[in-house]
Amino acid sequence: MDAVASAGRRNFLRQCLVGAAALGASGSAAFPAPARTNAPPADSMVVIARDPQLRGGGANVDARRMEALLDRAMLALFSRDRAPRTPVEAWKRLIRPGQTISLKVNTLGGRGISTNLQLVEAICERLQQAGIRPADITVWDRDSEEMERAGFRIAMGGNRVQYFGTDRVNYEQDLVAYGSVGSRLSKILTERTDVLINLPVLKDHDGAGVTLALKNMYGVIHNPNKYHPNGCNPYIADVNMLPQVRSRMRLTICDATTAMYEGGPAFKPQFSWQYNALLVSQDPVALDATGWRIIERKRAENGFRTLEAEQRAPRYIATAADAQHRLGNCDRRKITTVEV
Amino acid sequence: MHAKVDRERDAPASPGGTAHVQSPEMADAPRLLDRRSFLMCALASGAALSTGEFTSSLGAQPIFSGEQGQANEQFTVEARFYEKQKEKRIKCKLCPRECVVGDKERGYCGVRENRGGTYYSLVHSRVCAAHVDPIEKKPLFHFLPGTTAFSIATAGCNVNCKFCQNWDISQVRPEQVPAQYAPPQRVAELARQYNCPAIAYTYSEPVVFSEYLMDTADAGHQAGVRSVVISNGYIQEEPLKAAYGKMDAVKIDLKAYSDSFYRDVVAGELKPVLNTLVTLRKMGKWTEIVYLVVPTLNDGDAEFRGLAQWIKTNLGADVPLHFTQFHPDYLLKNLPITPVPTLERAKAIADAEGLHYVYIGNVPGHPAQNTYCPQCRRMLVERVGFTAGKMLIRKDGNCPFCRHPIPGIWRA
Question: Cβ–Cβ of A206/B102 closer than 8 Å?
Fold first, then answer.
């Protein structure tokens, strides 16, 4: 009995070790909760996925090609550790069944330059395949009418993906504050979001310089108009430091199917180009730094001065990376750009 | 309609004011007061209620016809003060901030929007707070004492004071707060209906609803109702003359006498506000100044002295100056209520510099709420809370004891 018990104890301990290792491995494969510490990753990956044939021969984005582009981007983003075999497996590294997922789109630019509907639908499809209930997915921006103008159909209730703006549920009554910012947060963020997926667009901004991942978080607060002075610096970085924002943010997929190098944030067709790309990263600072370079390149091609020369360089990106914020990396040497 | 706001931006609710709504500060007040002050408060409240001087909260019931749809275009009028620029941008010329606003974006105030290169006010007739308040609550102490003002506000403000007590209407966009349609003529009618000799534009920041203020002042004057504005004075000269030129009295919140306070706590600038005060003086507008004393941030002797000297030199010794008590709110909850001795020190310094009418505000029952003749030192107007108890100034505006002229607008 004792011997058996002893052997059993040894076996039990051995099995525990094996089991723990197995659980750890499978756990990290399935639910690798990203480190939510103040330390940014040593290096950051930004995937630029492009498809020159994204629109086929027409003006609109082809839904199937968008889905394929998204899959390529997600597989590439997670290929560094242990390459996922399927796109759904890649998504499972971000989310797990039972969680509420919200997709923060950017719809200020109307149909001309807003987060692409086909992209949103492709993400929703993959999330559901990864085990998320449709009703637990919310696609949102600050205003429902703006979303409709950008091509989204408002949908609330029922077992389907939810599409609506903060105007339908309002902001929290209580203020949250960090640094220079004191704001009320969208109840979509606080009540319907375990995991936040940020879906900005790639464009110039007359005040901030560029508006990408970090700036898109102005859409979660009630008073963004107060935070545009001084090129939005340090306000953008501070908004992203709000615990409710930072703890939920897991992924940015920047829609660069149509992009703008001048004249933003409203749509100016003369300053836009069809880049047919997605920029994907878990580091919003690295993504913004990369997107800024793309915009500068396009400005140079079209004979425009740099944003620095225009005195509207997006300094908030460096602020977001500084020792006080540590939201990610903006140093080019610490950013691995993968083009697929 | 916003029912919560029953207090001035820089004058927290205190007994004797609109006694119908008990704000958290009012509920807490007895614990913060000494016995004597508490009794004075109770007396003031009782007086207010028993005389029926104060109506029930207008915010609690619809008083304006036509409930709004938040997207309703009836509130949208083209802004008066802006310049068009290239690429559908505009430059706002209303306040010194001069926001350059791109298409589909709003200015710092949050209530003006660029739509295709035309700038619009989104708050014309869009009233989110309406109350009948004692004029002393504004505070205006030299303007029709003992009367009430029909007080209205829209959403929005062009600064962002960290101590704002009405931040839930001033620091929001108009669509984020319930409001009602209140066209100018209706406001004038209601002011008459409630026996208010004046309409007060207050609570948030009237600079940002200048178009509505001007139209309402015109409607009020046609109906025999005056207008007063409670403002931060952060406005450019042209709109100042156009809008506040229609006012019968102006109260300016001078937040501090230092650039750093304006930069760090207010998100504004001192110089334009001083310019506003000088311009109002040249315009001959009756003006009173409120200075909210925030512990550790703007309560130094040198600052009080500099302020008093500047007022005396540039505006004259007869401009009333109110040192009011700060209460923790919004983003400055870590500071204590201003100690009364600090307010008394401020008053002593301003008195010593030669200002004639220096008051202490938000401290119910304090003797420095009364008006005294600067020549014979006799009390001329006695105030308890927001109630003017005795009013002894003669019809000709002189002291009844020594005939010294007392500046102000004393009779309706």
Answer: yes
